[in-house]
Design brief:
alpha+beta, single chain, 9-stranded antiparallel β-sheet, Jelly Rolls, 5-stranded antiparallel β-sheet
Length: 320
Amino acid sequence: MKKQATRNGIYIYNMFSAEDSEQIRALGAALSSPIRLQLLHYLREGPKSLYCLQQLTGLSATSIAMHVKKLEAAKLARLEYSPSKKGFSQLVFLCLGKIEIFGDSTAPAPQKSLTVSMPVGLFTEAESYASYFRITTNNPDDLSYEQIPIFSPKRENAGMIYTDGGKVSYTFDKEIFKNKKISQIVLSLEICSECPYYSNTWKSDITFSINGKELCTYTCPGDFGDRPGKLSPSFWTSIVTTQYGQLVHLSVNETGTFFNQEPCAPINLQNFKIDGSENLVFSIETKKDAKFFGGFNIFGKNFGDYPQDIELTVFFEEIN
């Protein structure tokens, strides 16, 4: 199936397009069930475990799994594994946004998008507010990582970086935004809290900013190390330490700022000069006065669970 066309985060379908017909059928099937509409209502209140949905509806585990699968096929919900006291629980998240279905004559031209990947070690600013700021490379010979200076050339090979409290910033060049009418920017990364060894319940308040303007603070639930990271090299998975994080998305469009698709601030694109006149500086910080001063780990494409570095995706129309 093709990658779905979007505009300002809106899913766009052409009812007469053979490529869109499968997704339209999945959408219709998902919305045709009163039970699935009820599940969407529950998910609007926040993510729910499969067990919680069973309790709310009185349905069996098999029935709930079937209905959630239908919602996933329609891109109305997503299922993720989340650490819990008993190991892992399956959480269902609402993905419902705005959907537009057009005939051939009225379908808008899909927006273009550009994704830039920033290696986790290529930060332009880094500062520790507590005991340490460390770099782990993809080379097992560098396991004396405590000794690597923050701005060492070795940082370009970083597989992950971590601090028990501090700030790191990444600069995306202004050329990315030139000759484009930007409608949305999305930043995504794999991240978790940081403590000695690991603790799945070690909370941390992590603040995200663009060009010095704070967008939101995310309370990360833990520093995850109860299992190996899916992508981490063997020399790292053999150590009792942080292994994986959570993939988070921060988006800014014409209406506001969203964290994992949930509104988090009224700050919109008009609050920034994203027109090619200045660079975009993305900062991640555990502030000194944070309620949960728990640091952070940022994972690169060869560590953790997700095969990506820090990604910036820009949705735009070209300006001639």
